[in-house]
Amino acid sequence: MTVHSMPVRSQVRLADAGDRGAIARFLAQAPDATAFHRLEWLEAVERASGHRTHVLMVEHDEGIGALLPLHAVHSPLFGRALVSTGFAVGGGVVGDAVHVDALAQGASELALRLSCPTVELRGGPLPSVEGWHAKTGSHAGFVCPLAPDDEAQLVAVPRKQRAEVRKGLAHAMDIRVGSGAEDRAMHYAVYAQSVRNLGTPVFPRALFEAVLDAFGEDADILTVLADGQPVASVLSLYHRGAVMPYWGGGIFAARALRANDVMYYALMCHARRRGCDRFDFGRSKTDSGAYHFKRNWGFVPDPLAYAHWTADGMSPRDVNPLSPKYQARIRLWQKLPLPIANVLGPFIANGLA
């Protein structure tokens, strides 16, 4: 990202439908654009959830200098917020960092107009204007290069975790990759059970459908089957040579079969064969179970920083499942029959964007 040494006067405006082509060209060339900045992501989230997309942009004589995509999240349970971006683990300002403060100021003004008491930036450079607060140390990202072949990929896994993968491979489970109707149905069934077991409401199926439709060849589903039945499944995104296993999980039987371990190893091999050179394990909360699971695979945590703004007299919204106030509800959710959890879950989770 380019940073100018001299201040630049920034004119921020809200993009309209006529800017779509210019935004797409800008994002295609911006080195810091993530999968969660892409128009495919923004439009899929809006279509599936109803959370409207707003893109703030700074223009100069040569075109767009920087932009900030946002979703206006509305929920009767969790309130309203502007987030960059919805249902994502990335986002924030993309482009010339000299425009960060102007875009952050524009975001807080837009939030007030939309009656959103909070703005959340999930990545990108941090604003330094009054009212904005940085949050560091709470999350880490995990990215590692892929090995040149399947055997080298297995050897690259640390010894203890490699042993778990080998135990799973010994079960000779089948691997299926696709994005058709059957792949989607198997993935949602597995994922819904997985998150219920964790005490978390499942996202609407329409969200997965919309992302798969929008990303086309840049998204797919890998499913592990034992005796013909899906036991672990993951929906992955592909962006600029990196694969990100984004929505994945396993049923109860997956643990004994080491199906999740097989799933991630199979995805690494599959991604390399389709031309990827990096495995992006996404973000995890520091010291959480997922954080240590990824470290066991040999990934080195890279601390992440976020920023948020809250209107005067208001408190930031709390959608952190590890928050103490949610622990009793999580325990209750884990006991719900799966059909009931699958009916109630999407309504609740739609506000957790």
Automatic annotation (TrEMBL):
Domain of life the protein comes from: Bacteria
InterPro entries associated with the record: Acyl_CoA_acyltransferase, BioF2-like_GNAT_dom, PEP-CTERM_FemAB-rel, PG_Glycine_Bridge_Synth
Boundaries of every BioF2-like acetyltransferase domain copy: 160-295
Cited Pfam families: Acetyltransf_6
SUPFAM superfamilies: Acyl-CoA N-acyltransferases (Nat)
Family annotation (NCBIfam families): pepcterm_femAB
Protein name stated in the entry: BioF2-like acetyltransferase domain-containing protein
Lineage: Bacteria, Pseudomonadati, Pseudomonadota, Alphaproteobacteria, Sphingomonadales
